[in-house]
Amino acid sequence: MSLLAMGFLLGILKPSTSQFPRACANTQSLLRKECCPLWDGDRSPCGEVSSRGSCQNILLSQAPLGPQFPFSGVDDREDWPSIFYNRTCRCEGNFMGFNCGECKFGFSGPNCTERRLRTRRNILQLTTSEKDKFLAYLNLAKNTPSQDYVIATGTYTQMNNGSNPMFRNINMYDLFVWMHYYASRDTLLGGSNVWRDIDFAHEAPGFLPWHRVFLLMWEREIQKITGDENFTIPYWDWRDAEDCVVCTDEYMGGRHNTNPNLLSPASFFSSWQVICTRSEEYNSQQALCNATNEGPILRNPGNNDKSRTPRLPSSAEVEFCLSLTQYESGPMDKMANYSFRNTLEGFADPQTAISNISQSGLHNALHIYMNGSMSQVQGSANDPIFLLHHAFVDSIFERWLRRHRPMLEVYPAANAPIGHNRENYMVPFIPLFRNGEFFKPSRELGYDYEYLQEPELDSFQEFLMPYLEQARQIWGWLVGAAVIGGIVAAVLTALVLACQKKRRGTSSEIQPLLTESEDYNNISYQSNF
Fold it and tell me: Under 8 Å CB-to-CB from 402, ≥6 apart: which residues?
């Protein structure tokens, strides 16, 4: 894209969203534990004058957690966001946002009453101009400071319980990289001690809803800073791919000629700097990532450990995963067997659904295959392929939802790992979202996938699948009922024929006697199952 066009996009900059609202990143808000900013429309907290929302106490889930995190009161993310704020805006109707100044996903208009459905498309099927626009939007996000949000550079304790705020500015793209890091970072226990078996965005039921919110919010920010209300994140369908077809200078950056771990200088992604990739350094310093630049994007697709991930996932593996009827099972972590979530995430074998953490399947396989920045959990969002990948993972989640049509109660209400129960708020989003709120079809959230809309036959088959599955489960009963019904019908037919024969062989003087004790014409035969 030309410098003139990029300059135009920068000139129409609008506010962005996610993480700590700038209006609440101050001593007064932290000490009061209140984040209820003014809405610009009427200059009242949460737009209360306009009936958009009001400042309310946060209602935290009291459901028990799983045993994976044996501590309490040591991590700022516990009972999010109560360590920082216990009062936030509670929005009414279809209003949303940290100050109720926006519309819920899937709604638009001045009063958020207009439904809107956008379609995510395959990046390989975009026109050249559509693809170039997407790449330009990515670069714009990397060079546009977030107007509404800042990131925390210290824990609440390091902030002296709010009297010494530690926040800093960040660009819009890196804001989301930092959020992904913050949700998956280790717990700092003091000294040189950390607890690694904790993750508010992975390895548990919230994996799919969390990344669904992540993509929706990222999508909205691009819509806002560009003014392009129709923008959607494209996806990369990696099923049966023999190599990384988007790893070219035309798309997400090709391989460097002399250093296979770097991107080609012909791609502007080669100049991008990564953040939040040095987890061991942060742990040893008992510090948070402060979004300092840490070097270029690393990527060497296909030169990964083949014993762990021999190839990219296949269509057959995706179909097997979709056939699993349980969303979650057992310990509800990476050891879960026959769990759709755990199999799609990649900790369970995509051919048996048995947990096998020595292998990386489906979602995890793609991360390992990229063999670089994408392969380290906390900093994986630095590589823009992350967005294409997770959009496709979300589409598989969507197919499962449409096929099995689960009730909300299918999502675990209790005993999941910390932060993953149905009513837990997702870390570190402000405005607040509960895990269960995004366990529903994407159309209810205002978006769909192009390949799920056509051909019509596939959609019809997806519609029929839950009913066919139910029929399969009761097939034995159906066959038994059919056999019994056939026997009963044969017996009844024989009786009727016998009666008719008897009537033909009886004199007219005797026939009326049949109706003296009962009404022959009203006799009926019923078989009940």
Answer: 441, 452, 462, 463
Among 321, 322, 298, 444, CA closest to 371: 298
For residue 3, name the pLDDT band (cuts at 50, 70, 90): very low
Q: Which two structure tokens, joined as six digits, stand for 522?
A: 């009203």
Contacts of 128 (CB under 8 A, 6+ apart): none
CA atoms of 271 and 290, how far apart (whole Å): 20
Beta carbons within 8 Å of 169's beta carbon, 6+ residues apart: 145, 146, 150
For residue 504, pLDDT over 90 is answered with: no
Mean pLDDT of 445-469: 68
Give tens-digit pLDDT for 163-181. 999 999 999 999 999 999 9
pLDDT, residue 219, reads 97
Distance from the first to the final alpha carbon of the chain: 70
- Of the candidates 483, 412, 328, 384, which has an alpha carbon nearest to the alpha carbon of residue 136? 384
Question: Measured between alpha carbons, how far is residue 262 from residues 178, 296, 301, 366 in Å?
Answer: 22, 7, 11, 18
- 8 Å CB contact between 95 and 103: yes
Pairing of strands 53-57, 107-108: unpaired
With beta carbons less than 8 A apart as the criterion, state whether 225 and 145 touch.
no
- CATH entry, 119-148+173-452, from 3.40.50.150, 3.40.50.1000, 2.40.50.140, 1.10.1280.10: 1.10.1280.10
Residue 58 has pLDDT above 80, yes or no: yes
SS3 214: helix
Please tell me the predicted confidence (pLDDT) of residue 460. Answer: 52
Mean pLDDT for 480-492 is: 60
